[in-house]
C-alpha cells in the first residue's frame, strides 16, 4: 500500500505531461479595455497542437503559438461573457479539451435616453388633485448601462407651472396634479424633464438627457350659463342681472321690448365650450301676455294690457346639451301712456351744407362734417315707443326730414344761416316735442356726384363732403386752365405796353421818333390864348425826313448834349423871369392828320430829356398862328391870324 501511495503522484504527473493544460480558466475584464498582452499561456505536450473549438465566442479570441489573446474590445452591453474552447490534438485525434471564461465588467459609458423628444398630454380642467396625470412607464428613460440608477428632475418652462404638477419621486418619473386647474388662468404648461445616471451632478463619468413635456388644459363644463351683464365674484360664480321694462297700457308693441340694463342675453359660463343657450319661461307667463324667443331671448307682447299692472317673469337659460342652466327675473310694468312726451337730448342742433346743393342732399353734422346730421328724440318713460316717433320740419320749406336725417327740399342758391323747427311726434301716445336746427349754407362747392345724367336732367347722387381733397387729374386740369389764363394775361399786357409806350421805347433807343397817330396832351403847356394854325396833311415821302425847321429866328436847336443843361421849365418864363435864363425848347411840327405836335425839354422833369406831346384838334387850331420862339412860354400870345410862316410839307418829324 505504501508503494502505491508513492507511485500515484508520479503516475498523475506522467499523465499530465501527456495533455494540454492552463493555469487559470476564469478571467474578469472591464469593458472597453484594449490590451496587447496575452490573456494566458497554454502548456501543449510535444507532438500536439492547440486550436479554438467551435464553442468559442466568435471573433473574440485568437491563439498565437501557445498563447491566448483577446481579439476584440469587450463591450458589456453587447456580450457580458466571452468563452474560449481550447482543443489539443495529436494528428486528427483530440487529446484534450479546455474551456476558458472571460467575464466582462460593466462600466458607465452610455447616456440615458428618452423614447421621445417632446410629448403633449391633454389634461381635463376638472381633474382631481393628487391624480397621476402621466404614469411612470410613459415618462421613464432607458439606460444601456444595466446597473445604472436613473435620477429625474422636473424643471418648469412656463412660469408657475411647478405649482400645479410634480414628480412622484426622484427615481419615479410619474407626473402628479398638486392643485386644481383653471382653464381661464393657465391653458398650457411646459416642462423640461431631465434624467441623470448619477445621483451627484459633478461625478465622472456622468450622463444626462432631457425631454419636453407640454400639458394642455382642456375646458370642462364647470359653470352654468350667466345672464349678462353680471358681476363676477370669482371664476365660477356670477351675480346675474335682473331685467326691467315698461309697456303702455292699451297698446300691443310690435317689436322686442326694450329692457334695462339691456336685452335678455346669457352665455355659457365656460366660454371655451360655449354651448348655445335656450330660453324659456319658468314662471309668471301664465296669462300669455308675453312670449320669449327660444334662441334670442327677445321678449315680445302677445296681447295688450288693459290696465296698469306689474309682471314678474322668471326666465330660464339652459345649455343646449342640457348640462347646466340658470334663471333670472324680468319685471315688466304696464303704465298709462297718456301724456307721455318725447324729449330731444339737445335744444339746438347745428348742420352744414354747400351752396348749390340740389334736392335730397343730406345736411352734415357741423361737429363731424363727414357724418350726416341725425336728430333723434326719445320717450323717457316708454323706450319701446321710440320707434313710433316721427319727425317733420314745420317752418322752413328748404329742408325736410327723412327719418332722423335732414335733407334739402330745394335748390340752395344763397349762402347764409337757416333755422328750422323739427317736431317729433309719438304716434302711439300723440305726445310731441320740438327742437331747433341751425343750418349753415356755405360757399363750399357741393361734393361730386356719383352719377349725373346729361342735359335732360337725370338724377344725381351726392357724395359725402367730409373729404375735400382733389384728385391728381382734377389738379392737373386746374393747373392747365390757370396756366392758359396767365399766358393770355401776359400777351394782353405786352400788347398794351407796346401800344402806350412803344414810341418812347423807340425814342430812348436813339432812333427817329416815328409819327404817332395820336399823342399825349400835357395841359401844363397849353395856354388859354395859344392857337395853332391848321395845315394840310402832307403825303408821306420815302427817304430820310428833312431836318426840323425853327418856327421863328433865334438860337439854333440844341444838340442832344445840351438837352441835359436846360435850367428851368417854360413855366418859370411865364412867371416873368428872364427868358435868357430859361433854356427850354418848345418846338412844333405839323401832323399828317392835322394839328401840330410840340416838344419841350427841361431839366425840371428829370435828368433825361422828357418829351411832351401836345395835340390840338383841328377845330381849335383854325386861325391860330404857327409861330413860336425858344424860351417863351407864351408862344401864341402875340400871334394873330396870318402871323408866322407855314411849315413845308414833310416837316412833320423832329430828330434829336
TrEMBL record:
Intermicrovillar adhesion molecule that forms, via its extracellular domain, calcium-dependent heterophilic complexes with CDHR2 on adjacent microvilli. Thereby, controls the packing of microvilli at the apical membrane of epithelial cells. Through its cytoplasmic domain, interacts with microvillus cytoplasmic proteins to form the intermicrovillar adhesion complex/IMAC. This complex plays a central role in microvilli and epithelial brush border differentiation. It comes from Camelus ferus. Residues 625-643 have a biased composition (Gly residues). This is Cadherin-related family member 5. Residues 61-114, 123-227, 254-344 form the Cadherin domain. Part of the IMAC/intermicrovillar adhesion complex/intermicrovillar tip-link complex composed of ANKS4B, MYO7B, USH1C, CDHR2 and CDHR5. Interacts (via cytoplasmic domain) with USH1C and MYO7B; required for proper localization of CDHR5 to microvilli tips and its function in brush border differentiation. Residues 441-467, 531-579, 612-656 are annotated as: Disordered. Its main location: membrane. The gene is CDHR5. One of its GO terms (molecular function) is beta-catenin binding. One of its GO terms (cellular component) is adherens junction. The keyword Oxidoreductase does not apply. Residues 535-558 have a biased composition (Pro residues). The chain crosses the membrane at residues 475-497. It is found in: Apical cell membrane; Cell projection, Microvillus membrane.
Amino acid at each position: 500500500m505504501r508503494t502505491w501511495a508513492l507511485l500515484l503522484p508520479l503516475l498523475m504527473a506522467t499523465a499530465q505531461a501527456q495533455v494540454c493544460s492552463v493555469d487559470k480558466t476564469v478571467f474578469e475584464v472591464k469593458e472597453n479595455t484594449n490590451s496587447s498582452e496575452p490573456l494566458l499561456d497554454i502548456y501543449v505536450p510535444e507532438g500536439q497542437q492547440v486550436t479554438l473549438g467551435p464553442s468559442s465566442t466568435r471573433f473574440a479570441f485568437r491563439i498565437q503559438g501557445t498563447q491566448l489573446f483577446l481579439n476584440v474590445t469587450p463591450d458589456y452591453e453587447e456580450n457580458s461573457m466571452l468563452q474560449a474552447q481550447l482543443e489539443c490534438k495529436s494528428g486528427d485525434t483530440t487529446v484534450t479539451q479546455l474551456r476558458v471564461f472571460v467575464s466582462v465588467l460593466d462600466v458607465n459609458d452610455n447616456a440615458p435616453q428618452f423614447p421621445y423628444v417632446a410629448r403633449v398630454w391633454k389634461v381635463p380642467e376638472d381633474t382631481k388633485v393628487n391624480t397621476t396625470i402621466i404614469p411612470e412607464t410613459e415618462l421613464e428613460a432607458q439606460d444601456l448601462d444595466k446597473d445604472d440608477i436613473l435620477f429625474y428632475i422636473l424643471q418648469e418652462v412656463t412660469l408657475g407651472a411647478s405649482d400645479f404638477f410634480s414628480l412622484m419621486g426622484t427615481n419615479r418619473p410619474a407626473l402628479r396634479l398638486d392643485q386644481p386647474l383653471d382653464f381661464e388662468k393657465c391653458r398650457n404648461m411646459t416642462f423640461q424633464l431631465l434624467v441623470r445616471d448619477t445621483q451627484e451632478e459633478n461625478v465622472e463619468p456622468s450622463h444626462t438627457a432631457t425631454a419636453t413635456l407640454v400639458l394642455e388644459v382642456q375646458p370642462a363644463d364647470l359653470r352654468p350659463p350667466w345672464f349678462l351683464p353680471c358681476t363676477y365674484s370669482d371664476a365660477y360664480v356670477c351675480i346675474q342681472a335682473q331685467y326691467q321694462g315698461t309697456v303702455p297700457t292699451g297698446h300691443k308693441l310690435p317689436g322686442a321690448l326694450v329692457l334695462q340694463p339691456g336685452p335678455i342675453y346669457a352665455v355659457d359660463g365656460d366660454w371655451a365650450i360655449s354651448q348655445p343657450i335656450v330660453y324659456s319661461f319658468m314662471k309668471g307667463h301664465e296669462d300669455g301676455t308675453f312670449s320669449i324667443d327660444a334662441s334670442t331671448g327677445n321678449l315680445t307682447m302677445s296681447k295688450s294690457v288693459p290696465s296698469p299692472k306689474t309682471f314678474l317673469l322668471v326666465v330660464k337659460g339652459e345649455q343646449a346639451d342640457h348640462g347646466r342652466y340658470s334663471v333670472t327675473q324680468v319685471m315688466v310694468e304696464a303704465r298709462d301712456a297718456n301724456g307721455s312726451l318725447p324729449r330731444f337730448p339737445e335744444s339746438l342742433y347745428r348742420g352744414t351744407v354747400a351752396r348749390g346743393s340740389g334736392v335730397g342732399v343730406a345736411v352734415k353734422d357741423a361737429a363731424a362734417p363727414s357724418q350726416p346730421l341725425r336728430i333723434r328724440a326719445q320717450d323717457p318713460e316708454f323706450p319701446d315707443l321710440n320707434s313710433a316717433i316721427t319727425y317733420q320740419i314745420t317752418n322752413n320749406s328748404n329742408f325736410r326730414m327723412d327719418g332722423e336725417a335732414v335733407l334739402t327740399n330745394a335748390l340752395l342758391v344763397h349762402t347764409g344761416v337757416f333755422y328750422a323747427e323739427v317736431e317729433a311726434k309719438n304716434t302711439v301716445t300723440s305726445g310731441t316735442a320740438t327742437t331747433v336746427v341751425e343750418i349753415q349754407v356755405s360757399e363750399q362747392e357741393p361734393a361730386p356726384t356719383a352719377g349725373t345724367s346729361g342735359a335732360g336732367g337725370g338724377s344725381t347722387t351726392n357724395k359725402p363732403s367730409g373729404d375735400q381733397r382733389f384728385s391728381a387729374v382734377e389738379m392737373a386740369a386746374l393747373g392747365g386752365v390757370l396756366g392758359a389764363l396767365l399766358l393770355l394775361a401776359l400777351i394782353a399786357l405786352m400788347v398794351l405796353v407796346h401800344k402806350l409806350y412803344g414810341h418812347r421805347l423807340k425814342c430812348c433807343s436813339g432812333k427817329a421818333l416815328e409819327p404817332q397817330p395820336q399823342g399825349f396832351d400835357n395841359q401844363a403847356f397849353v395856354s388859354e390864348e395859344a392857337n395853332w394854325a391848321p395845315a394840310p396833311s402832307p403825303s408821306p415821302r420815302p427817304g430820310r425826313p428833312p431836318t426840323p425847321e425853327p418856327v421863328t429866328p433865334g438860337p439854333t436847336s440844341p444838340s442832344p448834349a445840351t438837352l441835359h443843361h436846360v435850367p428851368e421849365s417854360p413855366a418859370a418864363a411865364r412867371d416873368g423871369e428872364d427868358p435868357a435864363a430859361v433854356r427850354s425848347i418848345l418846338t412844333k411840327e405839323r401832323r399828317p392828320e392835322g394839328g401840330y405836335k410840340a416838344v419841350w425839354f427841361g431839366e425840371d422833369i428829370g435828368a433825361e430829356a422828357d418829351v411832351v406831346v401836345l395835340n390840338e384838334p383841328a377845330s381849335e387850331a383854325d386861325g391860330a398862328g404857327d409861330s413860336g420862339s425858344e424860351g417863351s412860354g407864351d408862344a401864341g400870345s402875340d400871334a394873330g391870324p396870318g402871323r408866322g410862316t407855314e411849315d413845308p410839307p414833310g416837316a412833320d418829324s423832329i430828330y434829336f
